[in-house]
């Protein structure tokens, strides 16, 4: 199935075509509803430029494309019955994934993002433990490192010397990977596949490449868990916001907590000033999904590339996977 673009804006059309190519989605283009003819009802997804005059027949699967989220744009989107206004280029990753979900067959796994309120909050360890607990429960799991400046999730599982695909190998990707190719090429340990950055090959990733790879991953795995920096705007089915129980952590978390999608708040002790988890939740206007305290044996276990699957953090991850993070 294909996507239909209704727009008279050549720049907008070219941008959608680029994203569609990265997602291996076919698109057709029309300048108005008369030119679209039967494609308007048969397309899996209809992308309407804010420049398009007039109306289109009511149907599901309509997204309005715009350069800015203005009141007139939203009013027009409501008139057309659009499910969402996608502002480009800011929401390129969302649009690429939406096209893939609509136009490509096959089931999609869930994507969970883990974001630390600040550097050193423990997001990498949390994401790794979450992945290990999900794998112990029988899920096919991919752990994705999106923090190019971190120490590497592969290191936490002892995979830094294991051959396999890393992000630099995918930086020049055109089109979409086959799900089986991704499964066969990334290294894995303890039932968790890991896509990480290369320690000796830094690279900058284009948003459409990341979106394409993650959409492929969701077709290959039951669960895709990303270690996502605060400043990286990527969609997820659920986001876990990890906040140290301290004033600095709470202040740093406010920008994430105020986003459009409410994250699951998890706090981590110790609290050097006695800040209670409930006080953190009240300050961020979020319900508290869980709390755990620092465990003395964890740093030594991480040095041995053996994140523990017992203890307070592991029990919390298991509870979240069975509860708010469940499919």
Number of helices: 14
| Biggest sheet strand line-up | 8-9-7-10-6-11-12-13
- Secondary-structure content class: alpha/beta
Termini, distance in Å?
26 Å
What is the CATH architecture descriptor of the largest domain?
A: 3-Layer(aba) Sandwich
CATH class of the largest domain: Alpha Beta
- What characterizes the major β-sheet? 8 strands, mixed
Low-pLDDT runs? none
Organism: Actinocorallia herbida
Protein name: Secretion/DNA translocation related CpaE-like protein
Pfam family, one: Rv3660c_N
GO molecular function: ATP binding; ATP hydrolysis activity
How would you describe this protein?
This protein is α/β, with parallel strands linked by helices. The protein has 2 domains: 102 residues, Rossmann fold (3-Layer(aba) Sandwich), CATH 3.40.50.2300; 213 residues, Rossmann fold (3-Layer(aba) Sandwich), CATH 3.40.50. The chain is built from 14 helices and 13 strands. The strands form 2 sheets. It has an 8-stranded mixed sheet with strand order 8-9-7-10-6-11-12-13, with helices on both faces. It has a 5-stranded parallel sheet with strand order 2-1-3-4-5, sandwiched between helices. Strand 1, helix 1 and strand 2 form a beta-alpha-beta unit.
């Amino acid at each position: 199935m294909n996507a239909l673009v209704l727009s008279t804006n050549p720049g907008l059309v070219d941008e959608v075509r680029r994203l569609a190519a990265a997602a291996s989605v076919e698109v057709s283009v029309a300048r108005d509803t008369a030119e679209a003819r039967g494609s308007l009802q048969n397309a899996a997804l209809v992308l309407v430029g804010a420049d398009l005059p007039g109306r289109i027949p009511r149907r599901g699967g309509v997204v309005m494309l715009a350069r800015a989220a203005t009141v007139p744009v939203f009013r027009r989107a409501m008139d057309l019955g659009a499910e969402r206004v996608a502002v480009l280029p800011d929401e390129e990753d969302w649009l690429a994934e939406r096209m893939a979900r609509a136009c490509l067959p096959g089931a999609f796994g869930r994507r969970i993002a883990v974001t630390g309120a600040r550097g050193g909050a423990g997001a990498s360890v949390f994401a790794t433990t979450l992945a290990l607990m999900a794998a112990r429960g029988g899920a096919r799991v991919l752990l994705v490192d999106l923090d190019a400046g971190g120490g590497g999730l592969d290191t936490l599982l002892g995979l830094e010397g294991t051959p396999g695909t890393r992000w630099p190998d995918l930086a020049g990707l055109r089109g979409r990977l086959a799900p089986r190719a991704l499964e066969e090429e990334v290294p894995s340990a303890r039932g968790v596949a890991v896509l990480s950055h290369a320690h000796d090959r830094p690279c900058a990733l284009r948003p459409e490449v990341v979106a394409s790879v993650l959409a492929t991953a969701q077709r290959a795995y039951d669960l895709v868990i990303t270690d996502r920096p605060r400043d990286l705007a990527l969609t997820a089915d659920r986001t876990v916001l990890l906040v140290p129980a301290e004033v600095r952590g709470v202040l740093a978390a406010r920008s994430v907590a105020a986003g459009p999608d409410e994250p699951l708040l998890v706090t981590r002790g110790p609290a050097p000033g006695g800040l209670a988890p409930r006080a953190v939740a009240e300050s961020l206007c979020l319900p508290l999904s869980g709390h755990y305290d620092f465990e003395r044996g964890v740093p030594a276990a991480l040095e041995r590339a053996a994140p523990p699957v017992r203890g307070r953090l592991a029990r919390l991850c298991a509870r979240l996977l069975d509860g708010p993070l469940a499919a």
